[in-house]
């Protein structure tokens, strides 16, 4: 079954829309565009949301979160982010909820975390790290890919798309230092 990845949707979060210059006239327009952008995800596909699903501090925000969850296709898994309160985790019918998760999908292995990691399990064996949290501040490095909506046209990315991005991003000097590679080579 296909797997798709996204992060930092922030459904209903108008301050995030404005702060990051998202190209939508309003939060409802942003939400509608992200739901439309997920149309390629089929009901039996797995949609991994790597944190910060929705602004749900108010009753209106909770209703927006519930509506967005219901409108998104696929089996939805949450990798919890810093803006995912207990209400969101406990109320919505997620297929699974994790802080960090190691996934094998479509012949590839991934470490999923909301936050960008300096190193991760089996990095030397080619396991990719997918993250969000940093919005437009960093696309990633070789082997680690920001799957945040701003980086992917407000649509979930496929395994093939993130694999291609992981291969085309520049090496990480910090990861090379931590993993013992020659930092001069990166």
Please summarize what this structure is.
The chain is α/β, with parallel strands linked by helices. The protein contains six helices and ten strands. The model has no long low-confidence stretch (mean pLDDT 94).
Topology, element by element:
Layout: E1 3-6, H1 14-19, H2 27-37, E2 46-49, H3 59-71, E3 75-79, H4 86-91, E4 96-98, E5 100-105, E6 108-113, E7 128-131, E8 140-141, E9 144-146, E10 157-158, H5 159-168, H6 173-179
Parallel strand pairs: 1-2, 2-3, 3-4, 6-7, 7-9
Antiparallel strand pairs: 1-10, 5-6, 8-9
Structure report:
This protein has 186 residues and is an alpha/beta fold. It has one domain (3-185): Metallo-dependent phosphatases (Purple Acid Phosphatase, chain A, domain 2). The chain is built from 6 helices and 10 strands, in the order βααβαβαβββββββαα. The chain has a 5-stranded mixed β-sheet with strand order 4-3-2-1-10. A 5-stranded mixed β-sheet has the order 5-6-7-9-8, with helices on one face. β3 (75-79), α4 and β4 (96-98) form a beta-alpha-beta unit. The chain is globular. The N and C termini lie far apart (36 Å).
